[in-house]
Amino acid sequence: MSDTPLVRLDGAGKSYGNVIALRDVDLEASPGEVTCVLGDNGAGKSTLIKIVAGLHRHDTGTYTVQGEEVAFSSPREALDLGIATVYQDLAVVPLMPVWRNFFLGSEKRRRLGRLDIPFMRATTRDELHAMGIDLRDVDRPIGTLSGGERQCVAIARAVYFGAKALVLDEPTAALGVKQAGVVLRYIVQARERGLAVIFITHNPHHAYPVGDRFLILDRGRSIGYHTKDEISRDELTGLMAGGAELEQLAHELERGLRKE
Amino acid sequence: MTTPAVAAAPDERLARRSPLRRLLGRPELGALLGAVALFVFFSLAADAFLRTGSFSTVLYASSTFGIMAVGVSLLMIGGEFDLSAGVMVTTSALVTALTAYQLTLNLWVGAAISLAVTLALGLLNGLLCVRTRLPSFIVTLATFFMLAGLNLGVTKAVTGNVASDSVRDMDGFDSARAVFASDLAVGGVTVDVTVLWWLLLVAAATWLLLRTRAGNWIFAVGGAADSARAVGVPVARTKIALFMGVAFCAWLSGMHLVFAFATVQSGEGVGNEFYYIICAVIGGCLLTGGYGSAIGAAVGAFIFGMTNKGIVYAEWNPDWFKFFLGAMLLIATVVNLVVRRRVERSS
Ligand SMILES: Nc1ncnc2c1ncn2[C@@H]1O[C@H](COP(=O)(O)OP(=O)(O)OP(=O)(O)O)[C@@H](O)[C@H]1O
Ligand SMILES: [Mg+2]
Questions:
Q1: Is residue A133 part of a domain?
Q2: CATH of the domain at A29
Q3: Considering Cα of A151, then A152, then A153, then A156, what sign does the dihedral take?
């Protein structure tokens, strides 16, 4: 593995009209590493990864992939460079069968443009099986799967299509303890396979065990960027809370005033 | 559809989905049951209904709407509407009749010009929708009125009349009529050539939807456009192509008009767009997109044709037709909803 990170943002910024969602943020992700992006609701985590994924273009700063500067105009371009993203809303089409969702946008075809349906069905089943999900019927609409299962389908899809970088937007947010554990295990699995993983979460307890680097965002700004040996779990949790501290204080004062 | 892989690893699945449940999951099931019920009903209510002559009349009526319903249902699965589809048929017919007559062209040339113009209209509808991101309902409502006005205005300006001049004696009429508006005897039954076009289009659309990448994309852009874009589906291109598909069907129907009647009434077609949509919805297409089938739309068109002609054979006042159509639309929508909910819950 070379020293240039696979994905690198320098001073990236993005605004939606007059809302500045992201300002001067650095990030890098290298093969075999998990980079965690932490922050409260509205901190700009999704905005950050939408830039990485090619869904939005950054307004300021630079974005380089394997040392080359890029400005994607569609997610397809990012995908072609091996950057696959699993979105918070998962980017699945609920009414379509699991296997059609698995291959959506990268369909396997035979001669005359005919879909290779047996291959796609079997592959979907096998890939999910390899991740420990035993789907009885890959013809089910994906909307009928549980949140964790859908998450795993989305991750399995990205891994199968040869992603070099895997971007996960809050994959554990809607999950129970057990299912979150399953997803965290896949993240480690992906790292072992040599993928560069960018893992977005607002839960430091999910981030710390799997992460190698931590970027903490607050209201669109970076308030800390550390490697694992620089920071302990408690410090990380503390940093996360820092942004909310003032608010907390205000609440307490208010409560105190009401009592009097 | 069992695959070898399924057979090789049967232990994976505790209970395979029964064939009955698979059937219940098909979007066209409700329509199929409705069609059978209507057929039985009209067979009992109208003696004339079961004659072979009546059957070809019903099939003809079904096909003229069914051809459009193919394009409209695909568009609807792709999550859009086209309210200009009805008058676009007339536009397409008028372009052929007027250009060929005024410029004394072979009618095949007129048909080719019309094809280009009609596809351009579809392209325009599509571009307007994807570029402005306005609901297609509004965009095509606008183009509907514009086309309706153009049909009348241009025809009157060119011919001084509300109808185009007859093209019956012009070059190419007979050969084009054979292609677009003839009938054939198939085993003692007269079958209009439009029925063949209809079946061909339904088969092609079904293959497209279920067996090609484009079909996957159509379901995806209708079901969740943002998700589709995120995994690399060209959403705008797919939607534009669907509008052009409707335009192609409009051209085919327009050619039938020209070569069946030789003159074209410029005010025709208004209101037909709703019949196409009704065929698609009765056939199981979801109004919100992402679900439906071309075969369902064909069954919907057949129901439409049966009701339309069955009421005549039963010697009822044809005014009742619209009431029946509305009632059927309501029933079909509810049945589809119930069937789909049940299947989703139990699978
Ligand atoms: N399309 C948009 N238009 C306008 N403002 C937006 C848009 N998307 C996000 N924002 C704003 O940008 C800020 C950052 O949003 P973002 O979605 O990146 O936050 P987040 O960290 O992912 O939050 P969450 O934890 O809730 O997912 C928020 O203030 C949000 O309201
Ligand atoms: Mg977010």
A1: no
A2: 3.40.50.300
A3: positive
Provide the H-helix boundaries in chain B. 4-8, 19-24, 29-45, 52-77, 85-102, 107-132, 136-159, 173-180, 193-211, 213-223, 225-230, 235-261, 272-282, 294-313, 320-346
The predicted model scores a pTM of 0.82
What are the backbone dihedrals phi and psi of residue A198, each rounded to the nearest 5 degrees, phi first? -115, 120
Taking only the tens place, the pLDDT of each residue in B54-96 is: 889 999 999 999 999 999 999 999 999 999 999 999 999 999 9
Residue B300: CATH number of its domain: 1.10.3470
Q: Which residues span the domain enclosing B294? A: 27-337
Interface check for B7 against chain A (CB to CB < 8 A): the answer is no
* Pairwise pLDDT comparison (A91 vs B12), residue with the higher score: A91
Rounded to a whole number of angstroms, the distance from the CA of A152 to the nearest CA of chain B is 16
Question: Taking CB atoms and an 8 Å cut-off, how many pairs form between chains A and B?
Answer: 105
- Higher per-residue pLDDT: B41 or A133: B41
String of b and e for B138-161 (b: at least 16 CB within 10 Å)? ebbeebbeebbebbbeebeebbee
Tell me, in angstroms, the distance from the centre of ligand 1 to residue A49's CA. 11
Ligand 1 midpoint to CA B234 (Å): 25
Asked if residue A75 belongs to a domain, the reply is yes
Ligand 1 mean position, distance from CA A66 (Å): 28
Q: Which residue has the higher pLDDT, B133 or B328?
A: B133
pLDDT value at residue B49: 87
Closest Cα in chain A, distance from residue B63 (Å)? 28
Instruction: List the structure tokens of B200.
Output: 């061909």
Interface of A with B (CB under 8 A): 53, 55, 74-76, 79, 85, 87, 89-96, 100, 103-107, 109, 113-115, 117-118, 121-122, 125, 129, 134, 136-137, 139-141, 143-144
**Does residue B2 sit within a domain?**
no
The whole domain housing A25 covers: 7-94+164-259
pLDDT at B111 over 70: yes
Number of structural domains (chain A) is 1
Q: How confident is the model at residue A147 (pLDDT cuts 50, 70, 90)?
A: confident
Residue in chain A closest to B219 (alpha carbons) equals: A96
Could you tell me which residue, B324 or A131, shows the higher pLDDT? Answer: B324
Asked whether residue A107 is assigned to any structural domain, the reply reads no
Query: Could you give the CA distance from residue B59 to residue B117 in angstroms, rounded to a whole number?
Result: 29
Residue B6 is predicted with a pLDDT of 35
Segment B39-54 mean pLDDT: 87
Q: The complex's ipTM?
A: 0.82
Number of structural domains in chain B:
1
In a domain, B346, yes or no: no
Does A13 sit in the ligand 1 pocket, CB within 6 Å? no
